[in-house]
Design a protein that fits this description.
Length: 209
């Protein structure tokens, strides 16, 4: 990565981290995927129960594989026949892994969900929420973050899941009410009632969608 982009991302990450702290959340900066994985494993103690929503970023830094192979109680929804039981187990987990569809420069997190298990777990339930966010998802304000979530993340995820939504065909949000829509619940996380329950690792890389 160009050194000027690296420096810009480092400075921007510090601004985001200060914003998170003002919102009762904790932020960390990782210069690359390897540092992000190391920090995540420092934050999750051995023996902890860990669940997750659809977080491509956690896969991309190698965290999911490390948890499956390590000494953790990893609740693997993909391997469980009863998906509902896996989703419900997430609410009592020590850690819930996720990413964000977008985040503002002052630490507000925006997420859109179809089944809503991800946004509901971010809002309440698990003891800790660990969010892996690539610097490509940082936006100037909530309006920009919402536009990114609806016009970048949602169409790509609809295409990834093979859904028949207007955005999957056009590449942009059509504010649809399609039976396949994944834009069922919108969560804007602007403050955490419980100090440091939500922890964010900002990664100087392009992660997720």
């Amino acid at each position: 990565m160009n050194e000027n982009i690296v420096k810009r991302n480092e400075l921007l990450a510090q601004k985001v981290i200060k914003g998170l702290e003002s919102r009762n959340m904790k932020g960390y900066y990782a210069a690359n995927k390897e540092e992000a994985l190391k920090k995540a494993l420092e934050l999750i103690p051995l023996g902890a129960s860990v669940s997750m929503g659809g977080a491509m970023s956690a896969h991309e830094i190698g965290l999911v594989e490390a948890l499956k192979k390590g000494q953790y109680d990893f609740i693997d929804r993909d391997a469980m026949e009863d998906k509902r039981a896996a989703m419900l187990a997430a609410y009592d987990a020590d850690f819930f892994l996720t990413s964000a569809n977008a985040m503002t420069e002052d630490g507000v997190m925006v997420n859109i969900d179809g089944n809503s298990n991800r946004v509901s777990a971010i809002a309440q339930g698990p003891k800790h929420v660990l969010v892996i966010v690539g610097m490509n998802k940082i936006c100037s304000d909530v309006d920009g973050a919402m536009k990114r979530a609806r016009n970048v993340a949602a169409p790509i995820n609809a295409q990834r899941f093979g859904l028949s939504t207007p955005c999957a065909k056009t590449g942009a949000c059509m504010d649809c009410k399609s039976p396949d829509t994944i834009c069922c619940q919108f969560l804007i996380t602007r403050y955490s009632r419980h100090a440091d329950r939500i922890q964010v690792i900002l990664v100087n890389d392009t992660l997720g969608f």
